[in-house]
Amino acid sequence: MITKKEFGVTKDKKQAYLYTISGANGMEAAVTDYGAILVNLMVPDAKGEKKDLVLGYDKLADYEENGCFFGATIGRNANRIGGASFQIDGTEYRLPANENGNNLHTDFCHGFHKVLWNAEMLEDIQAVRFSYMSSDGENGFPGNLQISVTYTLLPDMGLQITYDGVSDKKTLINLTNHSYFNLGGHDAGSIVDEKITICADGFAEILPGAIPTGRILSVEATPMDLRKPKRIRDEIDADFEQLTLVQGYDHNWALNTAYGKVEKIAQVEDEKAGRVMEVYSDLPGVQFYAGNCITPQTGKGGAHYGRRSGLCLETQYFPNSVNIPEFIQPVFEAGQAYHTTTIYKFR
């Protein structure tokens, strides 16, 4: 079942809506056409008790600010681009230099998370599809890009996010979802006692400013080795240069899985809450961000959010890959289909 209700009016006087998808298993996902944002994710535990597992807000006005990108669809490009510029076939494209001379998440004020998408309720598959036409030159990117994001509730306690797009010019396309998860509930406090596993033998080395160098470093014998379950608190504050550069985990892991094939890439377990989240993707990288820089603020239901009160597992192409030929490229020819799938599954 899918229900639709008014969610507020934007600053430019446009009505936004909230769509709630309810599954037979008790799971619910609420998404809004403003920013194609995931607002609520209600997941029952083994006893049937439901908790909302994603950080966010009760009001649209707060999502119009949303400095931490709670629940947001990020595009056209997720993560960072060094020097806020890139070239395609010898033509340079310049983007907003919104973080220390680099570009982060496309545009803070007019990225995909700050526009109103068209919505379609797909009752037969328990899904809501959002679509948007990003015009040639928007935020500095070439090509008229027709893009869609589809949120689907799966019968086995999963939320699937599918991205589809096509441009009329060769362009960069690299979307992700920026939800912050806390398996104890969005209002449960710190995530540092949760255990995380990432199926990756390497990670993208970064410079100050969190721009990758182009080297994939081995996780072996470092705090970055998450191949077996590790409590986040155990080494997040270790005296390890890659961690101290960004105040903890905020890196892109080079996945062992096959690019283009949807496979399990990560797992998070909260023993106290009795919940496990598995993450599936067909992309080469995942950004594990432990919420090191969440600014103290009030979230849903008056909950206090602060440092490390949620974690992100953002499936994507490697940061700055468009400027690093050795990395798999998120560049698509005119007319070439962009398609990728991410699944968050709970038990």
Poorly predicted regions are none
User: Helical amount among residues, as a percent range?
Assistant: under 10%
| Largest beta-sheet characterization | 9 strands, antiparallel
Major sheet strand order? 11-12-13-14-29-23-22-17-20
Question: N-to-C terminal Cα separation, in Å?
Answer: 22 Å
Q: What's the overall geometry?
A: globular
Number of strands: 29
Structural class: mainly beta
- Tell me, rounded to a whole number, the average pLDDT: 97
Describe the structure in your own words.
The chain is mainly beta and 347 residues long. Helices cover 3% and strands 43% of the residues. It contains three helices and 29 strands. The chain has a nine-stranded antiparallel beta sheet. The chain has a five-stranded antiparallel beta sheet with strand order 1-2-3-4-5, with no helix packed on it. It has a five-stranded antiparallel beta sheet with strand order 19-18-21-24-27, with no helix packed on it. It is globular, with a radius of gyration of 19 Å.
Write a brief structural summary:
The protein has 347 residues and is mainly beta. The protein has helices spanning 60-63, 232-235, 241-244, and strands at 2-9, 15-22, 28-32, 37-44, 50-52, 73-74, 80-81, 85-88, 91-94, 103-104, 118-122, 127-134, 145-154, 158-167, 171-172, 176-177, 195-198, 200-206, 212-218, 230-231, 250-255, 263-270, 275-281, 285-289, 297-298, 304-305, 312-316, 331-332, 338-346.
